[in-house]
Structures are given as C-alpha cells and as structure tokens.
Amino acid sequence: MVITENWAVYNMYNQKNRRHETVVIEMFETIVSNTTEFSSLIPHYPPRILSQSYVTPDPLAALSVTQTLRSITNRAIIFAKANGRVGSVPKRMLDPRRPVILLPRDKEEQLIPYHPEILIPPPMYLNYNVTLEKIEGMITGASGLESTSLLFVYGMDLFFTRVTPANTFDLLNEDFDYWLIGIVLLGLLVATIITHALAEQKALNKKWK
C-alpha cells in the first residue's frame, strides 16, 4: 500500500473473485476554503471519496510511488511483481475518475477510458531483462533533477535505477550538438564585440566633424 497527497493505492487478493486487484482511493474537498486558519466552530464537510479497482494479472511483492524534488512532475506507481519484474505505471492510469464512456468534458480533463485490467507494456519495465529474486521492498527518493526519481529495490538482489515518469524534460539529450551551440555563441560574441567597436568608431568620427 502507498499513500501520498490525497490518494492511496493498495493491492489485495480478492477471495470472492479469486484474483489479485489493485484499488485506488482518492479524496476531494466538496467545499474549498481559502482560509489558512482552522476553527472547530466552522462546520467542516467530509471529503468526496472516489474509488476504482483494477485486475492485476500477477501477484505483487511491493508497491511504491515516485518522489521528485518539488513534486511538480506527474507521479508514477512502481509495481514489483512476485516473478521479479519491476514496472512503472503513470498515476493517470490509476485515476478513479476514469469513465466507462468518454464524454467531451472528460477529454478536456485528459481522462482515459476505464479498463478493468492493468497491463504494463514491456518498455515500462525498469529492470529490463534482469529478474530480481525475492523482492522485499522498494525505496524511492528525489534526485537533483525534477524529472528524475531514484528507485532502490531490495531483497535477495539489490537493484538501483532512475525513473522518469514525464521523460527527461529538464535534461539535454545525449546527441545534443554542444559544438554547434558553442560555435553559434562564439560567433554572436565576436559579432557583438565588432559591432560595439564599429559603433564607437562611428561616434568618434562624428565628433571630429
């Protein structure tokens, strides 16, 4: 089970349906108050609670959620399966507001249609072709980059990697052409110096007339 902000995600075995399920619960304020002070004399209304459940094909060994420096990046839920696979699922896939029929207002909020099963595509597995034996838990932490969260999986095996739920939006690509940018900046610097010198020479010549 993981709890963060105003939502919680937990995994369980449904004995009635004989399957593993992942449930998300999210709480919303029905009346938003702008005051920063709390008073027991002011009536407080219970939050609106939304919940959805999803079928998890494989049993899980651990759950975790990504952490970033300023919590600006969209979060992702980390699933550690009992078979040694570790996968990442965006939080929007576990949104209890996902409708069965997508309406225009749902498209405005970028909601996706509800699907009863959580399927992790192969590119979303974090340990690639490495199988981790007897996973006991996971620890996530923030890195120096807002886009990147650090993940440490422990058990019989130890595994450490980086997770980027919204891609590396604050990191340059490895094939970024540094030389081209350097040459362009150097050219601009030379042009600025030459232009400044010509402007001073023109001003001096005007004074001599």
Structural class: alpha+beta
Beta-strand share of residues: 25-35%
How many beta strands in the DSSP annotation?
10
What low-confidence regions span 5 or more consecutive residues with pLDDT below 50?
none
Range of helix content: 10-25%
Rg over alpha carbons: 26 Å
User: In angstroms, what separates the terminal alpha carbons?
Assistant: 84 Å
Mean pLDDT, rounded to whole units? 88
Major pleated sheet: 4 strands, antiparallel
Number of helices: 2
Q: What is the domain tally?
A: 2
Q: Numbering strands along the chain, what is their spatial order in the largest sheet?
A: 1-2-3-4
Succession of helices and strands: EEEEEEEHEEEH
Describe it for me?
- The protein has about 210 residues and is of the alpha+beta class.
- The chain has two domains: about 1-165, no CATH class; about 175-209.
- Helix content is about 15%, strand content about 30%.
- It is built from two helices and ten strands, in the order βββββββαβββα.
- It has helices spanning about 105-110, 180-209; strands at about 1-5, 5-15, 20-30, 50-55, 60-65, 75-80, 85-90, 135-140, 150-155, 160-165.
- A four-stranded antiparallel beta sheet has the order 1-2-3-4, with no helix packed on it. Strands 5-6-7 form a three-stranded antiparallel beta sheet, with no helix packed on it.
- A hairpin with a 4-residue loop joins β6 (about 75-80) and β7.
- The longest helix has about 30 residues, at about 180-209.
- It is extended, with a radius of gyration of 26 Å.
- The mean pLDDT is about 90.
